[in-house]
Amino acid sequence: MRKIYLLVLALALFFSSCEKDDICDANTATTPRLVIQFYDFANPSVLKNVTNLKVVGAGMTDGIIFNGTETTSGNTISIPLKTNDVTTSYTFTLNSGNSNPALVNVDNIKFDYTKNDIFVSRACGFKTIFMLNPTNPYTHTIAADKWIKYISVEKSNIENENETHIKIFF
Amino acid sequence: MKHTLKYFFSFCLVLSISLAKAQDTTPKDELTKQPTPKTDGVLPESPESFKNVDLTAKTKDSIVPVPVKTDRYGVRVGVDLYKLTRALYDKDYKGIEFVGDYRLTKKYYLAAELGNENKTTDDNRLNSTAKGSYLKAGFDYNAYQNWLNMENIISVGLRYGFSTFSQQLNSYKIYNANPYFGEVPPIPSGQKFNGLTASWIEVVAGVKAKVFNNVFVGFSLQLKRLVSNKEPDNFENLYIPGFNRTYDGDFGVGFNYTVTYFVPIYKKKVKPVIVSKKSDKKK
To answer: Which end of chain B, N or C, is surrounded by fewer C-beta atoms within 10 Å?
Structure first.
């Protein structure tokens, strides 16, 4: 009898372990974001921190949340691209919320790309990877005064978040 | 979770049957003991002459059943009712499985299953349909010691299964850990993956009981492990006909509930009891 109970227990454990593939593991590499790093225009090899940068997608009211806030003062940001469209536009606002309106500077960048849906697993479904348009990867437009001086595409294949895809010099 | 419970309960059912088997052996012992108390009861009453008569009767009793007991050999064919009736309550499933076995020796049976399934799997992020046919072949070993002229089976067996099928991806969702632009609704696909194959080994534990004449009812539980699996590009075999749902590893489980008809071909006398005792010792 004891052997039978052991068998039931072993079988129950066996089946319970099978359930884990019903939930998509957070560590699974799924749809990647566009990774942008900011560099000093005067000294192009040196990373430069932005000040209170707010990034808002076209048609959206709220900005992308970086570490709990809508503004960031770091040198690297990751922004999502639309998985159901081939263009995504963002406004990059420097010194966002500054009391001096003369310092608030808004630049607009539109990214053009092709996308490809890749199977991940039963639990995660598919992910989308992107390839920036080789001839015209981005369109940089400004409202009044531009703060972004140069944009460089480092990797046009956006397949994971471990590498920098775009460098912005200012 | 629902499926896990289902298999768990069906396994408990198998266990409950094996308990019933354990209980069967005790009355068997009682039965063999029964004649002796009777003669014991007679002994003190009767003088020596009666005792002689009893002895001959006793030896006659032990001789008579031996030539009478024969094992029937033949082919058993049937159908899996579980798959057949599932279409009635599960609109995402259509399937049929024919089962058959042939008695090779006293304990061993050649066994095979042939089936066809059409199953739509609706996961949270994927909806796909698998269609195809499969064949499983192997053997069953009857571990049940029948007494008198019973023909019940409690078996363990091995099968090699092979399936040829196609999959169709009906719709899918993109997993986006950063849904800034909102959750995207499922994307219809309709992409079809043809010419897929898979093969596997399975261990089968089953019970078959003779309900009347040559009709048997039984069920079995199968644990499977994939041997080969030809996966499509940019997709995965989420369901393999015959193997059922695939899990992260190579394991699968299965269940069937069969009704079979036994076609006797020839009879074989059961050899003297001593032989069966030896085989018992071997176990």
So the answer is: C
